[in-house]
Amino acid sequence: MNMEKYLDSNLSFQERAEDLADQMTLDEQVPQLSYGAPAIDRLGVPAYNWWNEGLHGVARSGTATMFPQAIAMAAMFDDELLGKIAHIIGTEARAKYNASSKKGDRDIYKGLTLWSPNINIFRDPRWGRGHETYGEDPYLTSRLGVSFVKGLQGDGKYMLTAACAKHFAAHSGPEALRHEFNTVASKKDLAETYLPAFEALVKEAKVEAVMGAYTRLNGEPTCASNFLMGKLKEWGFDGYFVSDCWAIRDFHESHRITKTPTESAAMALNAGCDLNCGCTYIHAIEAEKEGLVSKETIRNAVVHLMRTRMRLGLFEEHTEFDDIPYDVVACDEHRKVSLECAEKSMVLLKNDGLLPLKKENLKSIAVIGPNSDSIDALRGNYYGTSVAPKTFLEGISEEVGKDVRVYYAEGASLSKDRIQPLAMAEDGIAEALILAEMSDVVVLCVGLDATLEGEQGDTGNAFDSGDKRDLLLPEGQRVLIDKVLALGKPTIVVLAAGSSINPLADRANALIQAWYPGELGGTALANILFGKVSPSGKLPLTFYDSIEGIPDFSDYSMKDRTYRYTRDNILYPFGYGLTYSKVAVTALDFDKTTNQARVTVANQGDVDTEDVVEIYVQSKSSDATPYPKLCAFKRVALKAGTEEVLTLDIRDSAFTVVTEEGEVVDGGSEFTFYAGTSQPDPLSEKLTGISCLQVSVVK
């Protein structure tokens, strides 16, 4: 008997996918277009569920290494390490798939198509899903996203897993309106801010999937947008396109651009949406009968999906990934990487000299606050189950051992006015103050979790479908902070949150942005508090002073948003973060022949530390962003009193600007480059006490 062409590994994946699709009847093809694709026994096609998540670890399918949330990983400013993280996530996904499929378990969250990363731009601090992103900057998002995709997919004949760039495009809230919202974005903002990361992931990382958003973009639903699909074609996209979950249903139910599910299915398929996360594509057979979509269009979608499964090696007798054992999942080696990431992601926003703490000088510590002993404060959203998570309280307690007494008080509810339902308001304050008064130092662990900022529809989002109404902590926590700080005790405020928050903690001696730091966040915090590790994270987004200075949430113009377009209303700037030492760029040169910046970076302090060299560029073109934009970065480890010379490649995009018509053009002949460990703005200089160096370049 001759081998079926689709099983012949000597043929291209495209040829094999076409052969397999052509052997299916229309009734067999259409169910393959939904995320829960059934088996086709007569062709040897097993059932496959396309829906899996790997944002910061394999999610929602039991045990996995839980890395810091995406926004925290962005704060590392380390694309190489992010690629390593992604490879671990892909490896664990393979191990889980191998074991589950052998048991016949092909359920949701068990497949190899990971719908990550989220490369939307975190343009507004109110957006609840912002902590899933890599922040507000298109360059940083592009570099991190490319590394993450390459790590997930690998570089062999077969993909380790298939990554997905989402949500295409210009999507960042409001969550409550996302099913009917029409994003209005200018040609300039699209080309300059909202599309570059998607273009980079398609062109450079060869991302296997792109997911549309729920919204419309300038009138077109993003899952059936001629403009967006045209961009993918222009960029040479060669994977599959998937709708956000039940987004195609929104065509007729919310956007009202179609009248029936049949019309919606046809519209999405004709535009190029291959896979429906939802159930609307069950109407594709009726759409074909009514002449709304052709058999060829349906067949092409099936080809794209089968090609991805071929690229994953799912129709081979054996691949190099089939032997990855389950015991790599959450192994010690992977957990150590998670700890490393947590340490590198935490951002020291303020320190008057209290940190690092010295155990020998302490008899007691009060760990106070609703996030002190909270596993949710480690997780963020889209998380897996850690085998042994360490809360902040646990990390501190383990670090000091029996040498220092650790007191603990919850102090306040995360979001309510009392801890116990039958108690009076502020029922935890007295205990918190008693313990603070008894202690030598206070570690005040406050913030949010994914029940307060997250995705619409997630259980318990307390505010506007997961979005925030302002930049303040819930009132009960504000009362707690105010009364503890009023004692005048040495106090470190630890803020666990995935977005810009003003904790109103000016009186604190130190302030640490811990994000959602993953399973070993407590250990990482303790290592930083007690000086085992110098903090080195940088803010991947602007921390604003108040909501009043920010444009309307539904306004997608970049005017007065992010570090490239405003210097007003800033609490802590993009790119900012302190260490326990003093690191400065002491020399800067630019080589026009190679487009490389050569910097000398020196640790002028007495503490070994890592830090991040940041390069910014400003064009004199009238089309340039008002303020310098990030164009290169590199993390460096420096022993106290040492220096290192680094060479950073400057990409061609640094020398371009975007016109009002959305054309990417040459930025002129005169550019100024800035190098430092922060951005070149007065507030960063004031907060760090260090100025960036600059050099003018005439091209």
Structural summary, described in words:
By secondary structure, the chain is α/β, with parallel strands linked by helices. It has three domains: 5-327, Alpha-Beta Barrel (TIM Barrel), CATH 3.20.20; 346-529, Glycoside hydrolase family 3 C-terminal domain (Rossmann fold), CATH 3.40.50; 583-698, Sandwich (Immunoglobulin-like). The chain is 28% helix and 18% strand. Strands 9-14-13-12-10-11 form a six-stranded mixed beta sheet, sandwiched between helices. Strands 20-19-24-25 form a four-stranded antiparallel beta sheet, with no helix packed on it. Strand 6 and strand 7 (220-221) form a beta hairpin. The protein is globular. The mean pLDDT is 97.
Brief write-up:
With 699 residues, the protein is an alpha/beta fold. It contains 20 helices and 25 strands.
Highlighted features:
alpha/beta; 6-stranded mixed sheet; Rossmann fold; Immunoglobulin-like; TIM Barrel; 18% strand; 699 residues; 4-stranded antiparallel sheet; 20 helices; globular
